[in-house]
């Protein structure tokens, strides 16, 4: 399918070329062929987008004077507009990122659900009355922050932009979205949806561009009140430092090295299915990938055999194949990085149980075989660092204490999985895991209603649910002396 979607920047309700006239060429990771060319925002464009967002959200501005209920209607209309283009956006995402249309479809549906969920929040952001001494009335309200910046990675380009955009708008903020230059296309559809839903000009702006230029300009812009950054831990630290210069708030959603902890009483078929899905979905390019399998020694061989059987029968393909269940990784250089990690694992003593290279029948496309490495100890590089590809590392444990120690011995703390039929064990282990999210007998899973985020170097702050409403509002206390 040829790309026929938007190719310009979306600033202040207009579709415009970059001030520099520069463009970004994107390639389809499955065919390696050029797919689209879009405007490439630089510092001047980001500044124009922030200024537009600032005027739209200013006191007495159109967005500020839109009632909470009406804001909800606009968000619902955006959800409808996105849903109406669901298949188109999913296919674009599939060609831009390499994921299968099925995976891309789930991404778009999650965005529709998220906008509908936050549409219901707009008139429920309430304050509180404070019982202070004396003849006073004292209350606290929650106000919007102002201009919010959204810096988005390439692995879930549409969903991760929508995840923070929806609550930011619901709380009365305006937004500038900066998608990754590797996958700039789907975020532009937020411009179309905002137009179709009748949002005032400047409330939503979309500026695809490079991280070092457009991303950094957004994170350090003095008129941006809050930055939501989703991406790697290293870049996240830089964004935090940039934002610190203007004392701008940040939400950071960073990397992960999620463990799936499988106890001997688990339903092994269900565990094999969940572990397989948790590492090979999106070709393993997920912050919350279950990239470590921690399995009790009594069931390790049996479980690994079941996972390997599933991995070896996973059909590889993408937006151009109907039956693909795992796509290529995003680029040639990323494939090199993933293959290097596999070699390093073997050098450090791991055994390849399946995969380990480039599939023989895929001459084009940046495919990597679904790979399982056994005999991995927790000190090996492949157990500690985020590979961000279809590579599962397997470590055995002998009791619950060791399982918890291994799971928590990581610089990351995003999502952990527990597989057991024992109710009290499930609760006790979930309680002991130093992770922002724990899922029992299912992996991975999240909902617009539930907080998403991690501990340690996986991030700072939370997205989704009521938590995001706190992130995108600030408290204002009002005291009235009526005594
Ligand atoms: P990345 O950090 O390279 O880039 C993320 C975004 O930041 C891109 O838009 C990029 O252009 C921009 N950027 C790069 N340099 C910048 C700078 N100096 N200033 C401001 N912005 C800059 O990440 P990636 O390679 O696109 O994505 C993969 C990473 O994202 C993985 O580490 C993954 O774990 C993480 N991730 C985390 C979550 C989560 O919710 N925790 C979700 C998805 C991905």
From TrEMBL:
Similarity section: Belongs to the aldehyde dehydrogenase family.
Keyword Ribosomal protein on entry: no
Listed name of the protein: Aldehyde dehydrogenase
Keywords: Oxidoreductase
Domain Aldehyde dehydrogenase: 15-478
Keyword Translocase in record: no
GO molecular function: oxidoreductase activity, acting on the aldehyde or oxo group of donors, NAD or NADP as acceptor
Any Pfam family matching the protein: Aldedh
Subunit organization: Homotetramer.
Highest taxon, organism lineage: Archaea
InterPro entries according to UniProt: Ald_DH/histidinol_DH, Ald_DH_C, Ald_DH_N, Aldehyde_DH_dom
């Amino acid at each position: 399918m040829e790309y026929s979607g938007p190719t310009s920047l979306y600033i202040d309700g207009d579709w415009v070329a970059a001030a520099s006239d520069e463009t970004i060429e994107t390639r389809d990771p499955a065919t390696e062929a050029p797919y689209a060319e879009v405007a490439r925002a630089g510092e001047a464009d980001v500044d124009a987008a922030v200024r537009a967002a600032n005027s739209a959200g200013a006191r007495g501005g159109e967005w500020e004077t839109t009632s909470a209920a009406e804001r909800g209607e606009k968000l619902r209309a955006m959800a409808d507009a996105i849903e109406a283009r669901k298949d188109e956006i999913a296919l674009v995402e599939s060609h831009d990122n390499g994921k299968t249309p099925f995976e891309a479809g789930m991404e778009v549906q999650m965005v529709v659900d998220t906008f509908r969920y936050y549409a219901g929040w707009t008139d429920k952001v309430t304050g509180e009355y404070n019982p202070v001494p004396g003849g006073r009335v004292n209350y606290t309200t929650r106000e919007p922050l102002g201009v919010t910046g959204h810096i988005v990675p390439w692995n879930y380009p549409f969903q991760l932009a929508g995840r923070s955009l929806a609550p930011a708008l619901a709380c009365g903020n305006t937004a500038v979205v900066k998608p990754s230059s590797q996958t700039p296309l789907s975020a532009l559809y937020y411009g179309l949806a905002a137009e179709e839903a009748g949002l005032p000009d400047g409330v939503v702006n979309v500026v695809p561009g490079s991280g070092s230029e457009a991303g950094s300009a957004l994170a350090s812009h003095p008129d941006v009140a809050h930055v939501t950054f989703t991406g790697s831990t290293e870049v996240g630290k830089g964004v935090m430092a940039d934002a610190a210069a203007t004392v701008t708030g940040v939400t950071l959603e960073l990397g992960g090295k999620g463990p799936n902890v499988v106890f001997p009483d688990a339903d092994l078929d269900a565990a094999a299915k969940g572990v397989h899905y948790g590492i090979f979905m999106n070709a393993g390019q997920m912050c919350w990938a279950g990239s470590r399998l921690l399995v009790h020694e009594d069931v390790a061989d049996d479980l690994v055999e079941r996972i390997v059987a599933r991995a070896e029968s996973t059909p590889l393909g993408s937006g151009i194949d109907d039956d693909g269940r795992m796509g290529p990784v995003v680029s040639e250089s990323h494939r090199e990085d993933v293959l290097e990690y596999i070699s390093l694992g073997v050098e450090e003593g791991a055994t390849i149980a399946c995969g380990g290279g480039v599939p023989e029948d895929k001459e084009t496309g940046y495919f990597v075989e679904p790979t399982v490495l056994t005999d991995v100890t927790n000190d090996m590089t492949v157990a500690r660092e985020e590979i961000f590809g279809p590579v599962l590392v397997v470590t055995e444990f002998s009791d619950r204490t060791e399982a918890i120690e291994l799971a928590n011995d990581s610089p990351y703390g995003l999502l952990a999985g527990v597989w057991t039929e024992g109710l009290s064990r499930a609760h006790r282990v979930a309680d002991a895991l130093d992770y922002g999210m724990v899922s029992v007998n299912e992996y991975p899973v999240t909902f617009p209603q539930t907080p998403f985020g991690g501990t340690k170097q996986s991030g700072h702050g939370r997205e989704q649910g009521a938590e995001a409403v706190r992130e995108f509002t600030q408290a204002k206390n009002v005291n009235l002396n009526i005594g």
